[in-house]
Every structure is written in C-alpha cells, then in structure tokens.
Amino acid sequence: MFPLNKGITTPQAHVNIPDGLYEEELGRDGFYGPVTHLYHQHPPTGWTRIEGPLKPHAIDGNKITGNPSSADAISSRTPVLFNEDVTLHVCKPGTPMDYYFRNADADEVYFIHRGQGVIETDFGPLQYEPGDYIVLPRGTTYRISPDPDKGKHFFLLIESYSRIRQPDRGMLGQHALYDPGVIKTPTPDLSISAKESRPEWELKIQRQQQLTSVFYPFNPINVVGWKGDLTVWQLNVRDICPVLSHKAHLPPSVHTTFLARGFVICSFLPRPLETAPGAEKVPFYHRNIDYDEVLFYHDGDFFSREGIDTGMFTFHPQGIHHGPHPGAVEASKHKTETNEVAVMVDTQKPLQLSEQAKACEWPGYAMSWQPKTHSK
Ligand SMILES: [Fe+2]
Q1: Which of 68, 134, 135, 284 is the most exposed place for a label (fewest CB within 10 A)?
Q2: Separation between Cα atoms, residue 72 and residue 99, nearest integer Å
Q3: Residue 7 has what pLDDT?
Q4: Distance (Å, rounded) from C-alpha 233 to C-alpha 183?
C-alpha cells in the first residue's frame, strides 16, 4: 500500500520538481521516519505575517558580549538556547583561566569559531584552532588559555546533559565521515603547569549549576599517564568528509557528527553541489515537526540564507516551515559548490531563547522570506 502517490508528483524526491511548484518534505523523526513530499503552488514560507510565539529567529552571536574582556572561558559563557537535554552558549574568553574547572553536570563540546590557544586537561594539553570540536567528557578537569595574539576568541559551547557519542556509520564503513586516525587525543605533559609556582591551586566544580571551589597545595592536574576509552578528543571540520550524491540532495542527517540524548550535532561543510540535470541544489522546504533546528554559521557564504553572516544563529522551532530564501533557488543554478561551514544542533524537546539572545535578535528574520525585506 505504501508509499502512496497522488496528483502531481515527481518519482525521485528533490529532482525534476514540476515547473512552478514548490516541494516540501513532511517527515517524522527528523529525516529518518515516514515521510511525504507535498507539491505546493506557493512557497510554504510565503506568509504575510505571523501572530503568536511560533516564529523563526535569527540571533547575532557577534553582538552577545557576555562579560567584559577580563572574563575567561567559564565566566564569559552566555546561554543562547536551552532545554533539559542541552544548553548552547556563546563563550568569548579575553583572558586565561586562573583556576581549573570541572563540569559535573554535563559533557561539553567546544566548537572553536575564532581564536587559538591551549586547553590543559587531566589527559594532557591540546592546542586548538578555528574549526575544532573539542569533546570533554563530564567530570574532566581543565583550563583554557587563549593566545592573546590570535585576535578575538569566540567559541560555541554545547553543554550536553547526557554522554556525547559518535553516529553509527553503518553501510558507509568506519572510514566514512572521517578516518578515526584524524582524531587527536591528549598526551600527559606537565611542562605548562611546571612553570607556575603557587601556594594554592583552585578547582571550580559545577554541579546542579552551582560552583564549588576546592583548593589544593599542588596542581590538580598532575596525571603522568592514562589508559582507557574515555578521554578528551578533538576533531577539526576540515578532516570531515561530507557524504553527498551528485544526483539528489541528501538530508541533513548525513552530516551528523555527534549524538546525545534528545539532540544531534551536524556539520555542514564545503562540498560540490548536485550536478545531475533537474537535481535541486538548495535545502528543501520542511516543517521539522519532531525537532527544533539551530544553525550556527562559522564560515563561508550562506547563499540559501540571505542576511545571515558568520557568528550568527538561526533557530527554527518545530511546526513552522523553513527553506531557501527567495532568489536562492535561482542563484543556485549557477553554483557548482558550497563553501559554507555551519554547525547544526537539532533537538527533540523545544528550546527556549535566553534573555541575552532575545536582546540580539534580528527582528525582521521571520519575514525575510518575503522579497525586498532583507534589511536588518
Ligand atoms: Fe532544516
């Protein structure tokens, strides 16, 4: 009986969409569950106004200042969006941490948007640079020292209240997405802290969102060896090999980099666009009925999202459509590749915007699918 096929359709989703029609994907469970493609006479984002709380949002993370430049990687954390599974923060350290930190509430994933420096951990130090994901298992003791000569520092921090995992690669094989050999893990090296002499060392532990300071007469990072399969690890987006098809636009789920309870983290990376005749090159319209969708724009040219620049977030709650901006479909016909780098966080439970994020909203975003309304 299934799938059914009624009225005007196309046999292959996202290919040879009949002239003058707009294809929408209505699916369950993200992009994994039952799905129907609807062929509309008008773009689903062609609303004239929205009344009520369900609106697409754009937040300029560049305008979220957090604390003054004297703030460090912990004190500069500013929440942007949150639910009971995950909190997304902007983090703009202007100075090294003068203490060590341990998050006993959450695994942490730092995505380095701007800046370079070093993170010292129980397992050893790691140098970081833009494009790095750094995964810190809950309970890791660490300290971040940004390099002051590397400009402004700007991290996206994803606090996960369950364990961060890697996706099952399934039929792609274990060297798809990225070869495990590109992952970096730290090696104990106490030379950094050996240069410091202090009478007392402070460790701040976060538990139930409260901080406790524990003081030692020695450096709390004094590990000279470790073994096991739980550690800090680092992956740069340039080492990820995007999955694609030249014949049909693949769903965002093929770009999944991390999984946790109630959400996924995906990496959208430079790649060739579809080349087969009739293949759509821009993301299809959809109403993401089971996931809230957040995108953080790291680098490149976001040609399907006019008015969006690096350092910004878009937030599309469950239920209301999104899709390419007017002009993007036409513009895509002449493009052969995308150079965008973006991090997507899709959550099953609804997200809330923080007050700090609301203060940095682009109020015109919900109407930005209308022609000629792209002023911020
Ligand atoms: Fe989407």
Answers
A1: 68
A2: 10
A3: 95
A4: 7
| Mean of per-residue pLDDT scores for the chain | 93
- Stretches in the chain below the pLDDT threshold 50: 373-376
What's the 269 CA to ligand 1 centre distance in angstroms? Answer: 15
Cα 316 to ligand 1 centre (Å): 8
Distance 264 CA to ligand 1 centre (A): 13
- Rounded to an integer, what distance in angstroms lies between the CA atom of residue 329 and that of residue 43? 12
User: What gap in Å lies between CA 372 and CA 376, rounded to an integer?
Assistant: 12
Ligand 1 centroid, distance to 146 Cα (angstroms): 33
Residue keyed to tokens 């080492």: 239
- pTM, two decimals, is 0.95
CA of 9 to the centre of ligand 1 (A): 22
* Distance from the alpha carbon of residue 162 to the mean position of ligand 1, in angstroms: 24
314 CA to centre of ligand 1 in angstroms: 10
Query: Distance from the CA of 369 to the center of ligand 1, in angstroms?
Result: 14
Q: Are 16 and 36 in contact (CB under 8 A)?
A: no
Q: Where in the chain is the domain with CATH 2.60.120.10?
A: 46-59+241-367, 68-237
CATH class of 46-59+241-367: mainly beta
Per-residue b or e along 233-246, where b marks 16 or more CB atoms closer than 10 Å to that residue's CB: bbbbbebbebebee
Q: Which two tokens stand for residue 146?
A: 């940004």
> If you measure from the C-alpha of residue 252 to the centroid of ligand 1, how many angstroms do you get, rounded to a whole number?
8
CA 40 – CA 194 distance, rounded (Å) = 66
pLDDT, residue 67, reads 57
The rounded Å distance from CA 96 to ligand 1 centre is 37
Tens digit of each residue's pLDDT (9 = 90 or more) over 41-74: 999 999 999 999 999 999 999 999 865 678 999 9
Distance of CA 178 to the CA centre of its chain: 17
Q: What is the pLDDT of residue 373?
A: 47
* Alpha carbons 159 and 136: distance in angstroms, whole number: 10
Measure 50 CA to ligand 1 centroid, in angstroms.
Answer: 19
Q: What is the CATH number of domain 68-237?
A: 2.60.120.10
**How confident is the model at residue 326, as a pLDDT?**
80
